[in-house]
Amino acid sequence: MEYGVRPSAIAGFFVYAALLWTLLFQQGISYPFVFLFFGAVMGSAWFGGTLAGLLSVALSTLAITYFFVPPVFSMSVNRASKSYLVAYAICATAISWVSSSRKRAETRILNSRDQLEERVQERSAEIQRSHEEIVESERQLRLLTEAIPQQIWRAAADGTIEYCNQHLLNYTGRTADRMTGDQFVSVLHGDDREGFSEAWANAVNLAVEFEDECRICGADGHYRWFLIRSIPQFSTNGQIVRWYGTHIDIENRHRAEHALNLAQVELSQQSRTLSMGEMAASIAHELNQPITAVVTHAYACRQWLAADPPNLERASSTAEKIVQESTRASAVVAGVRGLFQGREPTRESADINRLVRSLVQLLRDEAIQRDVIVRTRLDTNLPQTLCDPVQIQQVMLNLAINGMDAIAKTDGPRELLIESAFRDSHEILIRMDEETTTKLFVPFFTTKPHGAGLGLSISRSIIEAHDGKLWATPRMAGGTVFQFTIPVVS
Fold first, then answer.
1. CA 68 to CA 90: how far, in whole Å?
2. Are strands 373-378 and 415-422 parallel, antiparallel or unpaired?
3. What is the tens place of the pLDDT at every residue in 438-448?
């Protein structure tokens, strides 16, 4: 239909009409009258397109050849008329192309205009719908802000307050026109206005979320603390459209914080009073062992001197031990005082294994009296560590004495194992009775009838002062494993 019947019908109609009218006019003209065929070609190309135009050129050429070019009523053409017929065919083809091209251009223009009108109408309808949706969204948002039991306000992109919900207006006792623009800060406490204005201006300039705590005057004239927050709303291109802010009442929190501060001051005063007593008890606890050793060595020295003849060599050796224990007692006092005064421990590079071996020598007499075997399992690849050797050895001594006290309650083999190992830090493991693991680190808790209950608590404080950790875990076979870590030399 599109490429056969319709073009042929249009071309045939126009050529047939031109032929009838040409035959009519030909009666009074002596030469072929073909101008109406040009009109038929133009009409065919205009209404039928290029194919109809070309068919019209072919049909009109045949009609002119048969009816108007000598010899008439014949398809043969004499020499004189050939150029005329060729010129007609060429002109008719050009007219057909021009006419069809013009028609196509006008058709495209009309179609484009129709499509443009449709798009404009669709766009207008979309804009209208969008406007209606925006109006409805704003109405719903306004209803929502009024329904939420919260003080809410809205500001323009430049930070100018342009809307406050009814809850905020009711609290301040002001009308909407007295809460917009620069009047908004007038409800703030005089001491908070300048800070709020500077922070708000900085948030608007940087396009970041805003948060501040201010006192707001209520309708009754009293001020309450509020947490004021605001977040920006951005458009699709990243520009700020508006700001939304809320007020959260934190008056009760401020009062609680004030009460807590007063309680902390009072507690600090009581803690200082208790610390003095605790320090005295701690010094007494820590000095018990070296003083006991001093007294024991002094008795031994007197016996060596009272012998007949006096054993001066053993007396001198025992006197040297008295000096060592006295020096250690002095170092213990200084360490405990520094611990309670919050001073950093005096740290030096030390070999943990050497401290363990020295500890075993100190424990020899104590272990013999308690019938305890002290064994060591030391990692020979331990690196040096920064610590206070006196304090670290005192910690190990406390743990070891506690372990031997716990072992003394058991039947069968009594063995205390001291291990050192390297992982991310040095680790000392001490085994002791597991029955005392529930309150081991609580000050003044002790398993000894005459103990002060401060050894493990102080030991943990010493280890934590060295950036380490002290803890206890139960052993599956019975007893307890004590472990503490201290950092290696960086």
1. 18
2. parallel
3. 334 444 334 44
